[in-house]
Amino acid sequence: MSLSTNHPAPACNADYPIRQSEEHRVTRRQFAKFTCCSALAFGAVALSKDKLFPPPIAKEPMRVASQSELKVGGYKLFNYPTANQPCILIRLSETEFAAYSQSCTHLQCPVHYQHEAKKFYCPCHEGFFSADDGRVLAGPPPRPLPRYPVEIRGQEIWVLPAPAKTAQA
Ligand code: FES
Asked: Which residues line ligand 1 (CB under 6 A)?
């Protein structure tokens, strides 16, 4: 006994004209929709990262260096407010010091101080920040470098908790 291949098509095929072999095929439209949705979701997570995982807030002042340790144009690296957050203390002039986060606001590469240009340079994607106030001068960084207030106590240089308003995003 053999089965005939000339059976009439079931009535439901008229309502759902999709062959079984095509059920798992991804159309260009579906792929574009998936790609757009994924990109939107990724963008939303990236934008809200700081809201979901806010950086630790400094609470205590910290002694970073003595004045004699830094010549004009010199710098000292330190971590603040936690051991995982690199910062940089720079000496802009005989009487002027400034402290910034050393993490670029683009993708967190460490920035380098260039005293002659009074700039911070991020070698990862050619980002530049002003050493005067941390503002972005060039490149992809979206926000200024976070700046910490500095206080000179006798010969000692201290970094204070409250971020300076000029460098806040
Ligand atoms: S990580 Fe600094 S410019 Fe991209």
From this structure: 104, 106-107, 109, 122, 124-125, 127, 139-141
CA 112 to ligand 1 centroid distance, Å: 11
Structural domain range at position 101: 62-167
11 alpha carbon to ligand 1 midpoint, in Å? 61
Q: Is 158:62 a contact under the CB 8 Å cutoff?
A: yes
Residue 4 lies in a domain: no
- Looking from the CA of residue 109, the nearest atom of ligand 1 is 1
Could you tell me the CATH number of the domain that includes residue 80?
2.102.10.10
**Do residues 130 and 149 lie in contact, with contact meaning Cβ atoms separated by under 8 Å?**
no
| Pair (35, 87) in one structural domain | no
Question: Which alpha helices (H) appear in the chain, and where do they start and end?
Answer: 12-15, 28-52
For the stretch 57-110, pLDDT in tens is 778 999 999 999 999 999 999 999 999 999 999 999 999 999 999 999 999 999
| Residue nearest (by alpha carbon) to ligand 1 atom 1 | 107
Residues 75 and 158 in one domain: yes
Tokens of 71: 């010549």
